[in-house]
Amino acid sequence: MNILGIESSCDDTSASVLTEDGIKSNIIASQSIHVKFGGVVPELASRAHQTTITQTVEQAIDEANISLDEIDAIAVTQGPGLMGSLLVGLCFAKGLALSKNIPLVGVNHMDAHIYANFIDSNPQFPFVSLTVSGGHTQLVHIKSPFDHEVLGKTRDDAAGEAFDKIGKIFGLPYPAGPLMDKLSKDGDVSFHKFPQALANEGLDFSFSGLKTSALYFAQDKDDEWIKENLNDLCASVSEAITEILIKKLRRAVKKTGVKTIALAGGVSANSMLRTKAEQLAEQMGLSLHIPKLSYCTDNAAMIAITGKMKAELGEFDDLAMKPFASI
Q: What is d(CA 210, CA 212) in angstroms, rounded to the nearest whole number?
């Protein structure tokens, strides 16, 4: 089965081709226009998708050395995400499906982050996924394909948003998360103890208090002091975020009794989180799965693999399929 995946949920336009031999292409067109605004501007994002989606899909098909006539199904992100961005990808996929009489598969973006682990690996069911991105933070019990139970989620801000917003407080450009990760490697995690909300309570997360704490901490510090201590500040914030993520993951494993865990989402690219997940797996005798870095952030390869898994179960959609902004 040959699958064309299309992803446009936020600010990356992506297309990928998956064949029986694996991922043959995974093209990502990132949008730099949002940097000067310190975050994604929805209207600008949807306009940029309109400009790039045709050439992105064409490039993915050309790189895969395949023709549209050989595509067996089109998998496209249905949601969650920015409504305008989702509509661009969904309408393009519908038009292509209609013109070429190709079956359509709607994909949940959060599911796709989880199933990105199946591109190069084969996690054994059941398992627990710690799904962490700019917009969502979840602990999900994956009992079997597409049989999910959300064990815990963020009550306010997502971990990825906390990284970006706190990085902005420290004067870092958007997106700040990857840069904070890089700077943390040369910092002292014990420089300042930032709060870990809900540390001893359930499986839900909360990061709004951490953002407020970082804001108040930096208010009476001048720019020079922040610059001199930036590595340590980034390390301390990273420690607070990753530590609470791992604490909750450990608690979820004990609750479910699973022997396999997985990381998913853009923040799963964070080196400190990856290291702590590896340590947790070793301590508890767990099998750990983490996608390659190129499959952690938003990409169409994860849409394609999820679409293939749904197609194999006979789960197709029609042209009446609608996008959804939230879960």
A: 5
Per CATH, the homologous superfamily of domain 123-290 is ATPase, nucleotide binding domain (3.30.420.40)
CATH architecture of the domain with residue range 3-114+296-312:
2-Layer Sandwich (3.30)
Residues 6+ apart with CB under 8 A from 318: 104
Token match 């991105």: residue? 133
Q: For the sheet containing 73-79, what is the strand order?
A: 22-30, 12-19, 3-7, 73-79, 104-108
pLDDT band at 135 (very low <50, low <70, confident <90, very high): confident
Contact 241, 210 (CB under 8 A): yes
Q: What are phi and psi of 260, to 5 degrees?
A: -130, 135
> Cα 239 to the chain's mean position, in Å?
20
Domain boundaries, the chain: 3-114+296-312, 123-290
CA-atom Rg of the chain in angstroms: 20
Which region holds residue 285: left if phi is over 0, alpha if psi is between -120 and 50, else beta?
left
Instruction: Give the pLDDT confidence score for residue 301 in this predicted structure.
Output: 98
- pLDDT tens sequence across 45-104: 899 889 999 999 999 999 999 999 999 999 999 999 999 999 999 999 999 999 999 999
> What distance lies between CA 16 and its chain's CA centroid?
16
